[in-house]
Request: fold
Amino acid sequence: MAGRSQAVLCILLSSLAAFALVQAEDPYLFFTWNVTYGTISPMGVPQQVIMINNQFPGPNINSTSNNNLIVNVFNNLDEPLLFSWNGIQQRKNSWMEGMPGTNCPIPPGKNYTYHFQPKDQIGSYFYFPSTGFQKAAGGFGGLRTNSRLLIPVPYADPEDDYTVLIGDWYTKSHTALRKKLDAGKLLGRPDGVLMNGKTGKTGGKDDEPLFTLKQGKTYKIRICNVGIKTSLNFRIQGHSMKLVEMDGSHVVQNVYDSLDVHLGQCYAVLVTADQTPRDYYMVTSTRFTKYMLSATGIIRYVDASGAKLGGPPSSALPEAPVGWAWSLNQFRSYRWNLTASAARPNPQGSYHYGQINITRTIKILNTAGPVDGKLRYGINGVSHVDGETPLKLAEYFGVGEKVFKYNTIVDDPTDTKTIVAQPNVLNATFRDFIEIIFENTEKSIQSWHLDGYSFFPVAIETGKWSPEKRKNYNLLDAVSRHSIEVYPKSWAAIMLTFDNAGMWNLRTNLWERYYLGQQLYFSVLSPNYSLRDEYNIPDNAELCGLVKGMPMPKPYTP
Ligand SMILES: *[C@@H]1O[C@H](CO)[C@@H](O)[C@H](O)[C@H]1NC(C)=O
Ligand SMILES: *[C@@H]1O[C@H](CO)[C@@H](O)[C@H](O)[C@H]1NC(C)=O
Ligand SMILES: *[C@@H]1O[C@H](CO)[C@@H](O)[C@H](O)[C@H]1NC(C)=O
Ligand SMILES: *[C@@H]1O[C@H](CO)[C@@H](O)[C@H](O)[C@H]1NC(C)=O
Ligand SMILES: *[C@@H]1O[C@H](CO)[C@@H](O)[C@H](O)[C@H]1NC(C)=O
Ligand SMILES: *[C@@H]1O[C@H](CO)[C@@H](O)[C@H](O)[C@H]1NC(C)=O
Ligand SMILES: *[C@@H]1O[C@H](CO)[C@@H](O)[C@H](O)[C@H]1NC(C)=O
Reply:
């Protein structure tokens, strides 16, 4: 009895210590989310979608660097639910990552409170449900992190700040789509594209605007591709866009007529209402597809009192660019602004990634093939399967070997034809500086995302990668980001330091493939098991699978 209460006291004290560490004096923002099914008709036919507080897409989270975000999620769906925070690094805190390998899902009818900080981050992000193909039904929304007042941003304060979530869309429910994937079939072409939950009608005079612009003022527009299959191009009738930020980094401010927004990516642009006052269309359409799907949304010029100015939009929509060479050139035009402040007062470019020696090179190759007669996707021959027990919890509670093996794949695979289904975990040495090469031998575009970090995409080139290609790397001002596209028959190289202890998902953003196993987890353990490197498991953590009912491990100490 005494031993037990001592242990409880010990846990209490240590979680108080963690509490103090995590939260410091940063302000708290509280959110309560009621997650339910709802029926709406974004494509003209009624369908079941996932709503948050009756909203589709979900509410925007507006935060500032280091804020404590407290999101109490009530799962009123009839299946387990998990939210992940795309691009938020969860430093020392993979406990809040919200992936099936890090957290137990919230059971139906239950609630769970996420508590995390966008620590030393600024920029445009989004959240999404990470299990059960639910992302195809909604449950996503924008998440913005503003710079703290004392830290200068490399552009004048915009008049307002708008979020545009674009993504391809199916009219079938996520459960119907899931059934198809479970049977080993792919989904085929999407039914359409949505912009903030709508397709828009061109030529419809009665269309309500998504946003209003005061004449002469400059606005920030954040565009994220929350879709599941296709790259999208985004453009605005009669207006150019000044790119200022992507995936959380201030960039050199080039001006573009249109932007390719690949799966999982976010871009922030400045748009000035300096054209003839009237309504204008924002347009988004599919890229690199045999079909052409698009959506529109209206921006409306208004006067100082908010009254509409001018007439309806012109029905002549700006065209999308053609071909992927255009897109590769656009990628190559992106540059990190080395002198702009980061989320902290130091310049972004003060971290000289180009001068660090690479200690490990990992090649990531697509594998596809049947497992038990059904199509699966994998990385380097292994198709990841999520078990009952999240990997992070199994590792933390010391039962990892009952759940997964480390290093199921090799860094430099030769055979990528055979495919086996099992948990796919690679361990990485804490603070190693590594290079990851994504090789795309396919005729279609790929897109990859890494949780827990931002990385430097130092090159994308056509053909095959070899070590000599390193001489072409951008070792100076590649934009630090978390998602990267890889063009057909091309490769991309990224570099990063594994300085964030935790269990982190590397995944394709092609959601059919993600669901069918094209992902892995990096286990990054600090050898010191210290609170300096990783927070303790939060005391409200949901426990499931093998670790349910197990005594809490000895907490980390300072
Ligand atoms: C959530 O929404 C459902 C359906 O609208 C409603 O029945 C339920 O009471 C709501 N729960 C909370 C906690 O607001
Ligand atoms: C977002 O938060 C910032 C900082 O608190 C505030 O200045 C701004 O008005 C907010 N924007 C919206 C759209 O709520
Ligand atoms: C569930 O919600 C209640 C009421 O808001 C809250 O007190 C409780 O901490 C929540 N549970 C979890 C596990 O977050
Ligand atoms: C980079 O940021 C600095 C500092 O805020 C700013 O003065 C400069 O104009 C920016 N450079 C470009 C090319 O955008
Ligand atoms: C990187 O490697 C080179 C060649 O092996 C060596 O001379 C240099 O000292 C190393 N630099 C660092 C920062 O470790
Ligand atoms: C991976 O983790 C295992 C188990 O902790 C350890 O024995 C091994 O040395 C690690 N390998 C690397 C490359 O870190
Ligand atoms: C572990 O702690 C020791 C002693 O404090 C320190 O010298 C070492 O750098 C730490 N290792 C890591 C990987 O942080």
